[in-house]
Amino acid sequence: MSLAQHVSDVVTDEQYQVMSKVLVVEQDADALDYLKKFFHKNNLIGMRVNDDRLISLLESNVDLGAIFLSENYVTDDKTGIEFAKMLHRTRPELSIFLRREYGGHVVELSDDVQRLFSGTYELGEDDRLKNLVDTFLFQKHYPMDFVSGVKELSLNAMHASFKEMDITCEPAYLVKDKIIFGELLSLISLESSWCRGYMMIEVNEEHLAGMIQGHKAVCDPADLNFRHVNAVLGELSNMVWGGFKSRFISSETMHSTGHRVEIPIIINHMRKYISFGSDDPQLCFKYTLSDRHGKTSPVTLVQKFIFSLEWDSEKFSESQKSVDEFVNSGDLEFF
Q: Is the pTM of this model over 0.90?
């Protein structure tokens, strides 16, 4: 089986609809049933956790897009509003949607408390809740051709970089977190007439080193050190970038050089935090690389796209038409 056939077999079984994982802090059975149905219709994956594990979850590397909180959520020592303050303090970048009670029989929220929430809703207010989700989570539209293309070219690069590995990819999802996965990351800029931003690939250094040591990477594992690990990740990033450029960016659609706005990138290694100067959600792909012979531990790679400077899905579609014309004429081919 050829590499192209192998990748095609992998990606054709996947759904290209972009999802997002959200945390549900809710006790009411009717509300839980309502949210479950709403999530199913709106590409959301709901997650719940026991009260005593809530903070540890928020302090972990679990990627989230938003939090759905009930005003009436109560434990032995906290009310819903007190939970909101704790949630906001722990993960201030996450949008919190507060469920209020029916009929207006509610206590008016102070200005300080209102600032904790991206919005409020009541059960049955589908349009209002969908507007909140679209405004704070799904504000960028990622066409199916883009999502499927990114997966395919990334899988191509991974199969070329690593030997005898089965590679799977979860459905694409959005996160508003700014948490770094693993200790090692690569960062490369992406730029065309329809996008400006960055691609980031994150990995656990020890796991990637184990793959190299197990002769699964296309490099010599002799005298392995962190520089070899960095080089493998750097080469993989270059291959994905090259595939991205070949597939999505034609020479006619490149920006002319000139003075443009740039945004500082802030990295805090101690807190595993990175910010690209925008609160827009990041488009994520999570890949699992498994040794077919079971001799090395599985490795997780997290790929994130952050179009904090420019994104125009309509221009992307126009650009794709131009690229397709080059392909059909034989002037451009994918590798």
A: no
